[in-house]
Amino acid sequence: MDYLSSLFQKAAMAVLWLCAAGVVQAQVPVLRISAENTVDHVQTKAIARFAAQLEQASNGRLKVRFYHGAKLFRDRDVIAALTTGKVDMAVPGMWQLDRYVPDAGLYMLPLFYGRPPEVHYRVRDGAIGREINRRIENNLNVVVPGRWLDLGYAHLYFTEQRISEHKQLTGLINRGRTEQMLAEEIHRYHRYGTSFGLIMLDVDHFKQVNDTCGHEVGDQVLCRLAKLMQEHTRLSDCPGRWGGEEFLILCPNTDLKGVQQLAEALRERIANEDFPVIGQRTCSFGVTVIGPGDNAKALLVRADEALYRAKSGGRNRVEVS
Fold first, then answer.
1. What is the pLDDT of residue 297?
2. I want to staple 237 with a disulfide (CB 3.0 to 4.6 A). Which of 79, 233, 257, 259 is the partner?
3. Which residue, 233, 275, 274, 282, is CA-closest to 254?
4. Partners of 241 in beta bridges
5. Cβ distance 287 to 306 under 8 Å?
6. 285 DSSP β-pair partners
7. Cross-strand partners of 240
8. Which of 106, 131, 138, 132 is nearest to 119 (CA)?
9. What is the mean pLDDT of residues 300-306?
C-alpha cells in the first residue's frame, strides 16, 4: 500500500480511484485500468496521463495497461469486476457507486444546489468525504487511494428554474422513487397476487452523443426520450430514470406477453424519432415479470441480463427473461 501510494503522489493527480485491495497486497507486475469513456473524453485523457506517469514513477517495477472505451468492462459492470479481481483499477461514475454505497451521492449536493466549487471540495476532502470513502472501501473490499476525479461541470444538469426534485429535469421520477414504487408493487403481488412487468431500457451508443455533440445535446436527447416514454406508455405505467442513459418502466397488472408488446411498440417508436441534432437513435430493452419468491434484486438482475442480451445481440431489440 505504501509503495503504490507513493507512486500515486508522484503522479500528482487529483482523482478518485478504486483499486482492488488484493492487487495492492500482491503487487502484481501488471496493473489493468478500465474506463468506459472514449479516447477523446477529458476523463480518458486524464487517466491516460496518470497511467503513463505511474508506470514511469515505478522505474520498471510496474506495468500499467489502460483500457478505455469499455474495452474491458462497461461502467455498470466494472465494480463487480473489480471486487472479483477481473480488473485492478476502475474509475466508475458516481451513479454506479450509489448501488453499493447509497450515500455516495452526497458529493453532488453542494453543486446541485448552486454552491461554489470550494464548498464541494470541503465536503469531498472533509469528514463526510472520508466517511464515504471508508464505506466504499468496507462495502466493496477495495482501496480508495486518492481524490475523486473532478470533471468540473461536464456531467451536471442546469436549469434556470429552481427545482426541488430530480424528476423536474426530465419529467421522470428518480431512481430512489422508482425503487420505492418497485417495492410497493412487489408487496402487492405477494399480498394480493397482482402481477406486474418490468422494462429496462438503455440508449444505444449514447457515449458517442456526449463525446461528439456535447452533454447539452445529450441532455436534450434524454429529455425527449423521457417524453416519448410518457406519451407511449399506459397511464398506469411508471417510467423512471434509473441512471445515466438507462431507464426503468414499471408496468402494473401486466403479464409477460403484454409487457413484451409494450416494450416492442416503444422500441419501434423511439427508433423512428428524429432527435435534436443527432437524428435517429435506438434503444435496447430487457423485459421480465414478477414470479413466486421474487424480490427486487431478482427482478432487476433478470431485466439487466435480458438488456445485456439485447445489447450483445445487435442492439435495437427486445429480449425477455
1. 93
2. 233
3. 233
4. 247
5. yes
6. 201, 318
7. 173, 248
8. 106
9. 95
